[in-house]
């Protein structure tokens, strides 16, 4: 992964679109619309299917950081809808601005596409240093927005759910990623326990809808290792080289979690931090330069 310099990223999420698209992708025989989810106590079968279709917004936000520093992140939805409300804490924890959209018609359509598009264009004129625009949606209504962003000199990255994304929208973007193919999606990090000396705290409860936090709230060593692996997987997925510059990896970790510090987990340097995780990543030293790569057993296909 080539180090991104002076790149500033703006992320815009049509939240209802991505949540319902994911639900309908996994449960084609039981499709839903927004108004089906707006009731205070949904059908238990729908509620269970919603849990199964939980969107990993952490993976989306982490992927956005691989393009540079995220300076704007907004999610558009009616946050009074129970399924949306279940994501609020995690989104706020990742510094995502929640834009409230009130339904204007009985179909529950809330006009997020228009509001989102207006905000994007306004932000691009107000903040000319934004270099990348990430649009998380699959609606063909965003084609004109993607084209306008490109005409304004920005690089447009789209993220959508396979089967629910307009092919014309994908073509209008500079890059388009299917949600299911995002690096680090649904990482299983339970196998990290054997490489962490300190005991790992276990959570007694879990939210119905969870977003991958920047670090886990349990053991700091395990949390730092998870962050390290996620940064490496993003780098391997986007780069052409097996070996990633250590500075690039650390910068990616800081973009995901600005509070990371190797000193905070007991190491005098980032090199020492990496060496301590020799069982999951290799370190190559070339003069003053340092390069890192995940060992094959940890390098999942994404």
UniProtKB/TrEMBL annotation:
Residues 8-177 form the NYN domain. It holds the Pfam family OST-HTH. Gene3D superfamilies: 5'-nuclease, LOTUS domain-like. Residues 234-292 form the HTH OST-type domain. Signal peptide: none annotated. It comes from the Bacteria. This is Uncharacterized protein (TIGR00288 family). It comes from Conyzicola nivalis.
């Amino acid at each position: 992964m080539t180090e991104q310099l002076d790149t500033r990223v703006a992320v815009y999420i049509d939240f209802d679109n991505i949540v319902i698209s994911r639900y309908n992708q996994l449960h084609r025989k039981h499709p839903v619309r927004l108004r089906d989810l707006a009731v205070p106590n949904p059908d238990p079968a729908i509620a269970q299917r919603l849990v199964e279709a939980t969107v990993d917004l952490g993976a989306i936000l982490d992927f956005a950081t691989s393009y540079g520093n995220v300076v704007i992140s907004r999610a558009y939805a009616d946050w009074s809808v129970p399924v949306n409300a279940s994501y609020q804490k995690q989104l706020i924890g990742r510094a995502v601005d929640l834009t409230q959209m009130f339904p204007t018609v009985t179909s529950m359509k809330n006009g997020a596409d228009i509001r989102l598009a207006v905000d994007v264009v306004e932000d691009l004129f107000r903040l000319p240093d934004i270099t990348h625009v990430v649009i998380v949606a699959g609606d063909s209504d965003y084609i004109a927005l993607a084209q306008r962003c490109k005409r304004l000199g920005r690089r447009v990255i789209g993220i959508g759910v396979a089967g629910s994304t307009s092919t014309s929208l994908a073509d209008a973007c500079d890059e388009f990623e299917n949600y299911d193919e995002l690096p680090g999606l649904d990482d299983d990090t339970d196998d990290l326990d054997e490489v962490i000396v300190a005991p790992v705290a276990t959570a007694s409860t879990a939210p119905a809808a969870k977003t991958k936090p920047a670090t886990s709230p349990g053991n700091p060593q395990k949390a730092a290792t998870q962050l390290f692996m996620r940064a490496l997987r993003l780098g391997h997925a986007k780069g052409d080289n097996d070996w990633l510059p250590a500075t690039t990896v650390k910068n990616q970790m800081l973009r995901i979690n600005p509070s990371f510090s190797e000193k905070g987990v007991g190491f005098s340097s980032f090199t020492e931090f990496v060496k301590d995780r020799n069982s999951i990543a290799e370190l190559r030293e070339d003069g003053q330069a340092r390069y890192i790569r995940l060992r094959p057993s940890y390098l999942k296909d994404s």
